[in-house]
Design goal:
eight-stranded parallel β-sheet, 293 residues, NADP_OxRdtase_dom
Length: 293
């Protein structure tokens, strides 16, 4: 939702190395889930504005609109491919040895590009990881993808993935992570930091349930936002990306929202502010498995 008071990005979005890669990626990127449901011209303009601001990490998937989101991204990056760290995802039902290659070719066609910077298994499914990773490695050797990773993997899955693929081959885990869903901080986040995997936080504002200023937690965010001449959404992004392994990919369907998201990368929270947010949105018990939406 639009906000009246916000910090605009004065410089390019802050970047850091993405896991074991030598590539510098904006800590705030651009998600595209449901992007095809809005006005295409607005979506393309917003994505291009994000690239202008250094939000070079653009994430999509064959799942989103059955390829329609990928096609929109392809139009947005048509003359700017080299500026973008482009990520897409293969559905688990397509993740056999042959199916992964076919899905990747289809994704590349939708995006009108010759390569992906990173290709992810969207979540674990019926096919053995050995088959999926064999296909991903073949695609990497062919230059159709430059790296690969996983999404929605808990620690046991990550351990198995690394055992199969080898150290430093799986470069990231894309997971649900927002103020009211911090399950990854129990085990997944420390494990990924120990093994030098990047964490990509999807749905960093939750799913249409961002804390209202009428709630105690929302009031904490609003109070801290005033200090930084920022918005509560920007404070949430600053909190989620406070650790050097984490990147966030909020969706933004307007230039105004993109500029707001980009501005969050400049905010450095104090230890006291982090402690206040931590207390307002407690971590909660460690459950088996990871939540997904």
């Amino acid at each position: 939702m639009p906000h009246n008071s916000r910090r605009s990005a004065r410089t390019s979005v802050r970047k850091r190395r993405f896991g074991p890669l030598q590539r510098e990626v904006g800590i705030i990127g651009q998600g595209t889930c449901y992007i095809e449901e809005g006005d295409p011209a607005s979506a393309i303009t917003a994505l291009r504005r994000g690239i202008d601001l250094g939000m070079n990490h653009i994430d999509t998937a064959e799942l989103y609109g059955a390829g329609a989101a990928e096609e929109l991204v392809g139009r947005a990056i048509a003359d700017r491919r080299d500026e973008v760290f482009l990520v897409s995802k293969v559905l688990p039902q397509n993740a056999s040895r042959l199916g992964t290659k076919i899905a990747c070719e289809r994704t590349l066609t939708h995006l009108k590009t010759d390569w992906l910077d990173c290709y992810l298994l969207h979540w674990r499914g019926q096919y053995p990881l050995e088959d999926t990773f064999a296909a991903l490695e073949a695609l990497r050797e062919e230059g159709k993808i430059l790296s690969y990773g996983v999404s929605n993997f808990d620690v046991p899955d990550l351990e198995e993935a690394l055992q199969i693929a080898g150290a430093s081959m799986v470069i990231c885990d894309q997971v649900l992570y927002h103020l009211q869903e911090r399950a990854i901080e129990h085990a997944v986040l420390p494990w990924c930091e120990q093994h030098q995997l990047a964490i990509t936080a999807y749905s960093p504002f939750g799913h249409r349930d961002f804390p209202s200023t009428q709630t105690p937690g929302g009031q904490v965010l609003a109070d801290i936002a005033k200090v930084h001449d920022a918005t509560p959404h920007q404070i949430a992004l600053a909190f989620l990306t406070r650790r050097p392994s984490v990147f966030a990919i909020p969706k933004a369907s307007s230039v105004e929202h993109v500029e707001e998201n980009a501005g969050a990368s400049e905010i450095i929270l104090s230890q006291a502010e982090v402690a206040r947010i931590d207390a307002a949105f407690p971590l909660g018990p460690h459950r088996r498995g990871l939540p997904m939406i």
